[in-house]
From TrEMBL:
Domain Peptidase S1: 1-245
CDD domains (UniProt xref): Tryp_SPc (cd00190)
Protein name (database record): Peptidase S1 domain-containing protein
UniProt keyword Membrane, yes or no: no
Keywords associated with the record: Disulfide bond, Glycoprotein, Hydrolase, Protease, Serine protease, Signal
Gene3D superfamilies: Trypsin-like serine proteases
UniProt GO MF annotations: serine-type endopeptidase activity
The keyword Glycoprotein appears for this protein: yes
Transmembrane segments: none
Length: 246
């Protein structure tokens, strides 16, 4: 979670992101301004100080490790991103944290799709998972981190939908969703589109970054037939590697 408050007041939460190593968070460029000053890691329910499941009265309660708030040291936005361009090309950014993050059971980095077979894969027809605290049908923001599995759509199909509104989908983008009521939404921006196939790659990999969707067409999130648009991470692997340091 990205915030414009150093002490991470939850009201300052603006976007999601993905921890990719102990010093960097991957997110969307449109999420990153000078006001993004901290990130929160290991969160689940923003309304609770401690995330627990089970019944403590019978000794079966299971609690997550405490959340970790870390200040941002540097914001690295792709130099070709244009916030005034509705196509949202190059909607990718990195946040360098002020200190290294200690991994826990609940704070782990997600893998990047660096294997050759993943770099060459278009993922069309596969299912991928998007997660975040964004808008739901009942609330502007969800208290609990939600996830949904979405089908990856062909760029050709996606382009036909968005071209009606003079938005052109490029190979550097990936589309997912289009099923009624199943979608990322406002507040999920910058979060990961995740893929895993035990027969190919047992770990979850980040193949997309939430960029934009139905709101660009003045439609509600989860409108049937309109997939969301994500930054395709495989197209930016070299950019990511070029912009991280120890």
């Amino acid at each position: 979670m990205l915030s414009n408050c150093k002490d991470f007041d939850i009201n300052g939460f603006t976007c999601g992101g993905s921890l990719i190593n102990n010093r960097y968070v991957l997110t969307a460029a449109h999420c990153v301004g000078d006001d993004i000053v901290s990130v929160r890691l290991g969160e689940h329910n923003v309304e609770k100080d401690e995330d627990c499941e089970g019944d403590n009265t019978i000794g079966s309660q299971y609690c997550a490790d405490p959340v970790v708030n870390v200040e941002v040291e540097e914001r690295i936005v792709h130099t070709s991103f244009d916030s005034d361009d509705k196509n949202a090309y190059n909607d990718i950014a990195l946040l360098r944290l002020k200190k290294e993050v200690n991994y826990t059971r609940f704070i782990q980095p997600i893998c990047l799709p660096q294997l050759t077979k993943l770099r060459k894969k278009d993922f069309e027809g596969k299912k991928a998972v998007v997660a975040g605290w964004g808008r739901t049908e009942k609330k502007w923001e969800s208290d609990v981190k939600l996830k949904v599995a979405l089908p990856i759509r062909s760029n050709e199909n996606c382009s036909k939908i968005y071209q009606q509104h003079e938005i052109n989908i490029q190979s550097s983008q990936i589309c997912a969703g289009g099923e009624k009521g199943q979608d990322s939404c406002q507040g999920d921006s910058g979060g990961p589109l995740m893929y895993s196939d035990p027969s190919e790659q047992p770990n979850w990999v980040c193949i997309g970054i939430v960029s934009f969707g139905t709101e660009a067409l003045n439609k509600e999130c989860g409108t049937e037939g309109i997939p969301g648009v994500y930054t395709r991470v495989t197209e930016y692997l070299q950019w990511i590697l070029d912009n991280i340091r120890p």
